[in-house]
Fold this protein.
Amino acid sequence: MTRSGLDLAVTLGLLVLYVLGIIHVGFFTASFVFMICQMALMGQRRPVVMVSVSIGLLAVLYGVVEVFLNVAMPSGLLF
């Protein structure tokens, strides 16, 4: 299997785990973990960048969806 084929297989596996994670631990926690894993898979190695990008995107998403549109995101055990 080529490197791109392996990356695709890992991404598909992460997506399955992400959907299951949304159900069990909630949207924001599952999204945070998924984004960190996906950025690592894509080659990002600086933890500060991975964490700050994930938190920033989730904060914007929270502001738009939950505050502005007043739509509740799926919650789970953690958030």
